[in-house]
Design a protein that fits this description.
It is built from ten helices and 18 strands. It has helices at 4-13, 18-22, 126-129, 137-149, 233-239, 241-247, 299-311, 328-332, 350-355, 385-394; strands at residues 30-39, 47-57, 66-76, 88-94, 97-102, 105-110, 153-163, 166-177, 180-190, 196-204, 212-218, 265-268, 274-277, 287-292, 318-323, 343-346, 364-368, 374-379. A hairpin with a 2-residue loop joins strand 5 and strand 6.
């Protein structure tokens, strides 16, 4: 670690216990911007986020010491320097309620209706394990206390040092498993009575193929008043009105899809491979996603109608047949791969139908352009289906 040369001198001058330093980490109202990057040897470029963190003390909450809001945007990923609509989101927690917007899907958990979600793998559950939660100062302190109490960790406190020419405090941790050090971390804090994070560097899976370096650089905390993080659903909805209107899972329907990215897909193909795409991923051609149940009485008619329509289009159109059935033989009975072109046949796609809000509307046909944005949909079967499909494909750019 880069502070190793400083640690011994600092400890000799003013030794303190890790607990004493951890107790000084800011647990009050807090708000700061963070530059966050993930480096892995197997990736050609870092994955980079910009994050805004805020916390509001919650003394009466037994699940988390603070309410918080984590607003994040991916600003760079391998192969793309321009973030898309699905490359941003947020997580928020207050009073037994957790909200998370990822890939244009807003999911929520409430202790009253789902207590297990807040009790596993440890108390706090999803509230303390959600992405980036460990960088909320009060939760960072909570995690460091757990490390200090765990004999597998060595935790070193450095109350007074200099980093980058500025006074700082630091906490250094190492994790030993089976006689080998598998992770290391340095937590650097702005100097002061209350310690606000300045930089965190995590070295995970040291020496393995999955080696990973995480670097979080914190701007100085902002003066944000008495309640930086929202503590009611109404306050959170005021900050994200469009996201709640369009992406809230509890009220999500097929009708909400147009204008949004096609949801992520991860399903086995009929030939034994696996098809995956992220919500922000572009498509090779305008795509028709057809959600089907092999046992439905209209399935064969839908397949014929879509294929007839696709043959009339003067440019390439990809078709993804997504069957909710798990049995490949059942799917193979109703669709012959040799009869189509530019097609992919998926099975076990119940999650795809759910994420599209179409579970109760099968068959359903969803149209997405090359940018991955859904342009339109058709729910159910009708006698003019083939011509309807042609019109909706023709409305997409080739």
């Amino acid at each position: 670690m880069i502070l190793s040369a400083i640690i011994s001198a600092a400890l000799a001058a003013s030794p303190v216990t890790p607990q004493q330093l951890i107790d000084r980490i800011d647990a009050g109202p807090y708000r700061a911007d963070v530059n966050f990057s993930v480096t892995m040897p197997q990736l050609p470029d870092d994955v980079v986020y910009t994050i805004t963190l805020s916390q509001t003390p919650a003394a009466a909450d037994t699940l988390s010491p603070v309410a918080y809001l984590i607003d994040w945007t991916i600003t760079k990923r391998p192969g793309s320097d321009t973030p898309g609509a699905a490359d941003k989101g947020f997580s928020a927690y207050f009073d037994g309620n957790h909200y998370s917007l990822i890939a244009e899907r807003l999911r929520e958990r409430h202790f009253d209706s789902d207590p297990d979600a807040f009790m596993r793998p440890r108390r706090g559950g999803v509230a303390v394990t959600t992405q980036f939660a460990e960088f909320i100062p009060a939760l960072m302190a909570q995690k460091l206390r757990e490390m200090a109490a765990d004999p597998r960790y060595t935790v070193t406190a450095v109350p007074d040092t200099v980093v980058g020419g500025e006074k700082a405090a630091a906490i250094i941790t190492t994790f030993n498993s089976g006689g080998a050090t598998t992770s290391e971390a340095e937590y650097i804090f702005y100097s002061g009575e209350k310690l606000a994070p300045r930089r965190v560097v995590l070295e995970n899976n040291t020496g393995s193929i999955g080696e990973q370096t995480i670097t979080a650089t914190f701007a100085p905390p902002q003066q944000a008043g008495s309640a930086p993080a929202p503590v009611t659903e109404e306050a959170l909805m005021t900050l994200y009105p469009e996201e709640f209107a369009r992406f809230r899972t509890s009220s999500y329907r097929l009708e909400n899809l147009p204008g949004s990215h096609l949801p992520a897909i991860a399903s086995p193909t009929l030939d034994g491979n696996r098809y995956t795409r992220t919500a922000s991923q572009t498509l090779d051609a305008p795509t028709v996603l057809v959600l089907l149940d092999a046992g439905s009485g209209f399935t064969s008619e839908v397949i014929d109608a879509v294929r007839t329509a696709a043959r009339q289009i003067p440019w390439r159109v990809d078709i993804v047949w997504a069957f909710t059935d798990n049995d490949p033989d059942r799917v193979a009975e109703v669709i012959d791969p040799a009869d189509g072109r530019n097609e992919t046949i998926l099975r076990s796609s119940t999650a795809v139908a759910r994420d599209c809000g179409a579970t109760a509307m099968l068959p359903a046909i969803i149209f997405a352009g090359r940018d991955g944005i859904v342009s339109d949909f058709i729910a159910g079967f009708n006698n003019s289906l083939s011509s309807d499909v042609v019109k909706k494909i023709m409305a997409m750019k080739p």
